[in-house]
UniProtKB/TrEMBL annotation:
Domain Calmodulin binding protein C-terminal stretches: 238-295
Superkingdom of origin: Eukaryota
Domain spans labelled Calmodulin binding protein central: 168-233
Name listed for the protein in its UniProt record: Calmodulin-binding protein
UniProt main location, coarse: nucleus
GO biological process: regulation of salicylic acid biosynthetic process
UniProt keyword annotations, A-Z: Activator, DNA-binding, Nucleus, Transcription, Transcription regulation
Alphabetized GO MF terms: calmodulin binding; DNA-binding transcription factor activity; sequence-specific DNA binding
Family: Belongs to the plant ACBP60 protein family.
Database matches in InterPro entries: Calmod_bind_C, Calmod_bind_M, Calmodulin_bind_N, CBP60
């Protein structure tokens, strides 16, 4: 412990100010926390939790935003006072509320304080928040606190503030560099890009067109800031599958970003695709938005990594964002909002592939009937979704296993993702659950057969 005469003490804000700051709104720390100020020993960096000054009173003040004294050097008390900002003539006190805080064990909580005026009239058009000790603690010099500079906007501007992060349902002007009812907003609205979701869909499927819509008035730097802000939008984990006749199935997220494709029994992630495959995939997603009744909803990517990765080849890597696309001129992407890929009703065209070859079954409908009529000990009578452990025990004897082809391919199984409008099924979600259960059971049987083969 240093003798009090040799100690160098300073006040210090312990957290940063939450931005943006508006007049009439409480000043808070990041994460909606209360601002805190502490008395710190400059030599050790430790909070002075006891002794002289640890329970002193502190005044919160407004400072000029361009008060740029070197943090490593001490400023004089006069310099600090000269940089304190007072209210404009005829205005209320610039800082209103609990401007006095009392330290407890060296730390004080800043109360409910707010600015009554914006910062546009100051030298730098910004403020800093300051804190200075009110009580005399002898001959010890206590250096005042100073926050980072920040802009204070009028409260009416809060109605137009940006969201961090934005949500999919936010209006598109909540993004950086797009002002409400401004030129960019009007251009986007004309193209039916009304929400952040619409913006992201067009960004992933046809960024060139989006750039063209915004025009030359948007600089490269503005574009970069806007896109970076849009990409911070939090998406759910659901994925969607769609395919057209004679095409691979494409896997994508709610804003049309291609995650991967199902091709020849393999799930290939986006950054492993060739440029031609990426273009085809984006075209399939565009078609999906125009034909949403045939989209299959997946819970997440793990739905594609079912059971045994040795049977379904998964190419592991991170997904890259597509850079080019051929989005149709009729702006059909807006159909994404219509139902957010809700499963079709029983009267809509079916989207399941008819080929599902397990034990000689030729159609998916046959597969469902076959499951209904399979008999084994412990059979589940009321549900098509059976416990795989029970099924394994039922079929683990040689008399049952001899009827299974051990080298059959999963290609036809994976083809169940593909649409076939000619074969209706009752409940798409039920069919998907059946598919998952049968696949898990099928893999279990293969492992049992492999173990028995090795034993022999």
């Amino acid at each position: 412990m240093h003798p009090s005469e040799s100690r160098i003490l300073q006040l210090q804000f312990l957290n940063a100010i939450s931005l943006p700051v508006f007049t009439g709104t409480r000043i808070e720390g990041e994460g909606c926390t209360s601002m805190q100020v502490a008395l710190v020993d400059k030599l050790t960096g430790q909070v002075v939790s006891s002794g002289l000054g640890s329970s002193a009173r502190v005044e919160i003040v407004a400072l000029e935003g361009d008060f740029d004294g070197d943090e490593r050097e001490d400023w004089t008390l006069d310099t600090y006072r000269n940089n304190m900002v007072k209210e404009r003539a005829g205005k209320k006190p610039l800082l209103n509320g609990d401007v006095i805080a009392t330290l407890k064990d060296g730390i004080g909580v800043v109360g409910n304080i707010m600015f009554t005026d914006n910062s546009s009239w100051t030298r730098s058009r910004k403020f800093r928040l300051g804190a200075r000790l009110l009580d005399n603690i002898g001959d010890v010099r206590v250096r005042e606190a100073r926050s980072e500079p920040f802009v204070v906007r009028d409260h009416r501007g809060e109605l137009y503030k940006k969201h961090y992060p934005p949500s999919l349902s936010d209006e598109v002007w909540r993004l950086e560099k797009i002002g409400k009812d401004g030129a960019f907003h009007k251009r986007l609205r004309k193209e039916r890009v009304n929400t952040v979701k619409d913006f992201l869909v067009l960004l992933f499927l046809d960024p060139t067109r989006l750039r063209s819509v915004l025009g030359t008035g948007m600089s490269a730097k503005m574009w970069e800031v806007m896109v970076e802000h849009a990409r911070t939008c939090v998406l759910d984990q659901k994925l969607y599958s769609y395919s057209a006749p004679e095409k691979n199935a494409v896997i994508f997220n709610v804003v049309g970003q291609v995650v991967g494709i199902l091709s020849n029994g393999q799930y290939v992630l986006a950054d492993k695709l060739s440029e031609e495959e990426k273009v085809d995939a984006r075209q399939l997603v565009t078609s999906a938005f125009a034909d949403s009744d045939k989209i299959i909803t997946l819970d997440d990517e793990s739905s594609l990594n079912m059971a045994s990765s040795s049977d379904l080849s998964i190419v592991q890597s991170s997904s890259n964002l597509p850079s080019e696309g051929n989005f149709p001129e009729d702006s059909s992407f807006h159909k994404l909002d219509r139902s957010t890929f809700l499963p079709p009703n029983t009267s809509s065209p079916d989207y399941m592939q008819s080929v599902f070859s397990v034990g000689g079954l030729s159609t998916f409908e046959d597969c469902l009937q076959g499951v209904d009529h399979l008999t084994y000990p412990g059979q589940a009578s009321d549900s098509l979704i059976c416990d795989t452990d029970t099924m394994n025990r039922a079929f683990c004897t040689d008399e049952h296993l001899q009827y299974f082809e051990t080298d059959c391919s999963l290609e036809n199984t994976i083809n169940a993702f593909r649409p076939c409008p000619s074969i209706p099924i009752g409940n798409p979600q039920k069919a998907w659950n059946v598919l998952v259960s049968v696949l898990r059971w099928w893999f279990s049987i293969k492992r049992i057969i492999a173990r028995k083969t090795r034993v022999r």
